Amino acid sequence: MSTRRFTDDLPDFEADNSNDPPYQAPPPPQARPAPAKPNAQGGAVPRGSAHMPRTLTQVLNEANDRVVRGDLVDYVPMPTGFDPLDGFIGGGLRKTELILLGGAQGIGKTIATLQIARNIAMRPDQYAFYLSYEHTETHLMHRLLCMESVNPPEIDLNRGVKLRDLYQIIVAQRAKEFMGRDGGAGSLQAILRDNPKTAPALGRMTRYADRLILVKASPAVTTLRAIKEMTARLCDATNGNVSVFVDYLQKIAVHPERPRDENDKVTMIVEGLKDIALSLDVPVWSIVAADREGLKSKRIHLFHLRGSSALDYESDIAIIMNNKYQILSKDHVAFNPYTARQFRDWVVFTVEKNRAGRSMQDMEFQLYGQHFSFDPKGQKVQQQLIDDKVIES
User: Fold this and answer.
1) Where are the domains of the chain?
2) Residues 6 or more apart from 209 whose CB is under 8 A from it?
3) Contact call for residues 96 and 278 (beta carbons, < 8 A)
4) Is 110 in a helix, a strand, or coil?
5) pTM
6) Is there a contact between 101 and 108 (Cβ–Cβ < 8 Å)?
7) Half-sphere exposure of 17 (CA within 13 A, CB side)
8) Domain 89-321 falls in which CATH fold?
């Protein structure tokens, strides 16, 4: 019996959003039959029926059935791979939760999000669904190759490949083929596989390539409804083992609704993303852009994110990224302008909202921007930051 890909049933408007060759995703695992409908005695309910009334007995029996089957995803979070971030947010991502990541342009929001999606897809039983309104699938693949070249968390910079290096390797090898020289490789995969700098990165990437699903979303047509439909099909195809990543929130299309202003639009979007997390029983991680006032401030906070207060109300976890050098307290007696320059490549992640744990927790991670990678082995911030806030070890 042939197995259909989940992409075979996607809406037509998602088929051609870029000039890149279509992403050839391998078939996901065949979906198992949907559980039985709830009955008077209390049984399992089909996926996507979270808004149907159920008795407490039915809820208890459904949870009991999952535990008996060995399905403990409701009790075991999915680690992001960033330590100590996982420790602060309860171990990682949890189903039904909406996590927001904010910060200034160029701070590394996409790098961190794509790396976390990769970390989850590395698990043989988990899938990551990454929607990008900013980059094509091919560009994201190139970023992943650069990241894999340093092999986080090992971070071996001696073997690292930059985006410029990657392009030169591909173009130079194809030039050999056109000129009829020996050793010319005809396909991209052959070029990457045969080059000693890119072969290890390709090998690492192929370990999870079947479980990382990429979509070049369109600000004009990729609506909340489209995201929910695609996610629902992925849930059916993977038994619900999907984490959703959106880059970024303010670019999600809202129609046929007509929001009054930017705040109204963001309210619709963030409520819609939270509904996807709850109704489809998946974690949703979304990047959020900062507003103009936030970009002018020395340190960006949650209230600087572009949109409305709904971002604060609807999110379960909100993480804000700031450049460490920019937010070091210059008044601190231990501040040294020369040694402080080493912090230019460090990013402070602040958990400003945490529905199930402590908030206003600061941790730092080193950024290797040319390799599109963070060192996930972070640490708590030891220095004094602006806002008269001191984080102690």
Assistant:
1) 89-321
2) none
3) yes
4) helix
5) 0.83
6) no
7) 23
8) Rossmann fold (3.40.50)
**Three-class secondary structure of residue 161 per DSSP:** coil
Give the pLDDT of residue 93. Answer: 96
CA-CA distance, 351 to 31, in Å (whole number)?
A: 36
Using the structure block, give the residue that is written with the tokens 């401030």: 297
Query: Interior CA angle at 124 toward 365 and 90, to 5°?
Result: 45
For residues 231, 237, 241, 246, the Cα torsion angle rounded to the nearest 10 degrees is -20
Segment holding 129, helix H or strand E: strand 127-132
Written as six digits, the tokens of 192 are 């990457």
Length of the chain, please? 393
Q: Do residues 144 and 205 lie in contact, with contact meaning Cβ atoms separated by under 8 Å?
A: yes
Confidence of residue 180 (pLDDT cuts 50, 70, 90): low
Tell me how far apart the alpha carbons of residues 137 and 100 are, in angstroms, rounded to a whole number: 22
113-144 pLDDT per residue, tens = 999 999 999 999 999 999 999 999 999 999 99
| Contact predicate 351/361, CB 8 Å | yes
**Could you report the per-residue pLDDT of 56-76, keeping only the tens digit for each?**
999 899 889 989 988 777 788
Residue 259 tokens, joined: 């929001």
* Structure tokens, 189: 């995969």
